[in-house]
Amino acid sequence: MNHPIHHYTVKTHKGRPLLFENGKPRPLIMYCPGNAFGNVSREDVDRFLSAGVTDFYLWVGRDETEKDGFTTPFWQQVNQLGEPRMVSPERFISLPEKIEYIIQRAPDARFLLRYYAHAPKSWKAAHPEEMAVNEEGTHLNETSLASLRYEEDHRRALRHMLAWIESQSWAWRVFGYITLHEFEGTTLYSCEGGCYDYSEPMRRAFREFAPQWEDIPTNRFLRERIEGGAMNWPEPGTTRIERDYCELVRRLFLRRCQIFLETARETVGSRMVLLGMDALKQGMQGWICSPFFEGKRPRVHHSHMLAASGSIAAEEVFSLPGFNVLNTPYDYIYRHMGGSPEPEGIVDSCTVRGTLFLVENDCRSFAAHERESYGYYRDAAEVQAGMWREAAAAIARGYQTYWMDVTSFPSPRGGYFRDPAIVETIRSIVPVMRRSLEWEHIETPSVAMIIDDRAALWEDLSADFQNLSVMWQRLTGLAHIGAPYRIYLWEDLAAGRIPDHRFFIFPNLFYMDETREAVLRERVCRNGHVVLWGPSTGITDGKSLSDEWATRITGMPMTLLHENWSRQVVLTRFDHPITHRLHGAISYGDSMPYGPILVPERDPSVSEQGIALTTRGINRPGLVIKELGKGDGRWTSIFSVAAPLPANLLREMARHAGAHIYSEENDVILASRNFLAVHSVRGGRRTIRLPQLSSVRDAVTGKEISPSTDVINLDIQPPQTRLFLLNL
């Protein structure tokens, strides 16, 4: 049967970016089966079909002659272009086999396809000079970002693959293509803690890009930190070469993104499809990746992965012609019960731009072996609470989520979804997710964390401080404040894209100039907002380190001390509206040393609520608050010497700003104006307070709870996630 061309686009519908097919919104409820050798995921597909899932996110397959998990059947050997082969009934690995199997059982199925942009092993063996080289001189199993030979051969293989797919009878069902750069947009070496690629292609590219330098820099900060002499923020005048290198790899990363988008658009032709990537993990500033997955102690100097990989300045990637979908997994670190599900990517920056955001829900379960898990669901009750939590987060923040299994191979307990109780939970979620796309999505002004994804350029390119100030601040603080939060890039704030939130957190706003100050004055430091400045806010103008900008933007006298030490803060006074509701002694911070240390001065105009615990000879305030301005220009400035701050303290800051607090119990609150979810691991009575009188219905059953109320009383049977519709 001949089908007319099907066009797939991304448009905003009911306040959230959605997939549109030929001009009409299409619910996107997907499953991505595993892709391991020895694959038996046919039975997993059957489970999801039985649960009502009809759309599938598929790998394009692997070339079995290479036995390389990251290659495709379309690029074989050194320069051989091939096609996927149908295989025996015992296997379920080739792309046409999967698609035909699914179509026979789901005639309305649609497909999203993705592939790893890796060269075959044989290509790498034939071209060792194109491979990245680490600081020890070892060739790595990844191509250099500067390899022109790889770019040419990859473009040719990509064009061949897309042309083959687009020629198939089922091609009209394919609504988009996703690429994963080598190691998901972060270089292998940066994941392991390294910074620089010393391959000849990169050295040549660096000499051309920055001819004032003879060669790529050596990792002097590694040596200095081993010797105990380094400070996290060197004088900018001494790090020009490091910043030039990072700027080069950023441009090379951007070029790879452009190659994918340009080649895909040219090959697909007039048919409109979604194009994007699984990369750009801007929400993971400071992630120490490989040690987490491998259970190994991190290097003394662990690189900031995104800066070392060129995966910064995401604003430019989002703005590339044709880019309309970003895909990342959920953050692996805190998937356990009680946490707030957060995508690795900067989801809220995508939704405010109208970009479709897909979250890979590969949360592990008791159906898999513990060694395959990262905080897995231990029983059916945790599966139910966890999966509804992920569904609720997607509804509350306007993104799309799909289930994924990365095992699907014969093993004693392989497969995250291979249990009847898990399938039953999925079956109950699917219709709710379909209905939710017609619920009006409106953001509610609350809490915003603003991230500068170039910030690492002003440090020593390490992950350490931002691991505390961005990641752990979100995981252990923001997740439990009892109010919804959002995370955006600095560029979203500067462009005026984001809602007028009440409480702003700047965890890594190191660089400051007049242009940035103007953005802060116009959009943040006004209208009764509360602003929490991170420990090293404004310490550089790109020319030198000083306390001048910190003093200027916080409105409080600051001093920059050239010391390198750990930071803790102990609250010692409770006479400010932000602290007077808190009970008992409160201390926070971490034992990791970093510096220089920016500390507030004692001043009559500043309310000193805590002291700083740092190195010998420093006795300064640790948490200070100042009320500034009048009328519409009124705002509250808060500076903390240490991070991360605890949830109860952040909650009081949000309350002071006028953000609505739904819960006082450290439960996870997932909310927008017309939707509310509560995830809790502590049993007992709950009083959830609503921002205004609302009709309340159970979002799962549709049952009316009250025609008009501003309070929801719950009896929590932990672990539990409850979903509600407000005024809908």
Structure description:
It is built from 19 helices and 31 strands. The mean pLDDT is 92. Helix content is 27%, strand content 24%. A hairpin with a 7-residue loop joins strand 24 (607-613) and strand 25. It has three domains: 8-436, Glycosidases (TIM Barrel), CATH 3.20.20.80; 502-657, 3-Layer(aba) Sandwich (Rossmann fold); 668-726, Immunoglobulin-like, CATH 2.60.40. The radius of gyration is 26 Å and the shape is globular. The protein is α/β, with parallel strands linked by helices and 728 residues long. It has a nine-stranded mixed sheet with strand order 17-16-18-19-26-25-24-21-22. Strands 4-5-8-11-12-13-14-15 form an eight-stranded parallel beta barrel, surrounded by four helices. The protein starts with 7 loop residues before the first strand and ends with a strand.
Work out the radius of gyration: 26 Å
Helix content: 25-40%
Averaged pLDDT: 92
Strand % is: 15-25%
Q: Give the number of DSSP strands.
A: 31
Main sheet, how many strands, which sense, barrel?
9 strands, mixed
| N-to-C CA distance | 42 Å
What topology, given as strand order, has the largest sheet?
Answer: 17-16-18-19-26-25-24-21-22
**Helical segment count:** 19
CATH-derived architecture of the largest domain: Alpha-Beta Barrel
The domain tally reads 3
Q: Briefly, what is this?
A:
With 728 residues, the chain is α/β, with parallel strands linked by helices. It has three domains: 8-436, TIM Barrel (Alpha-Beta Barrel), CATH 3.20.20; 502-657, Class I glutamine amidotransferase (GATase) domain (Rossmann fold), CATH 3.40.50; 668-726, Immunoglobulin-like (Sandwich).
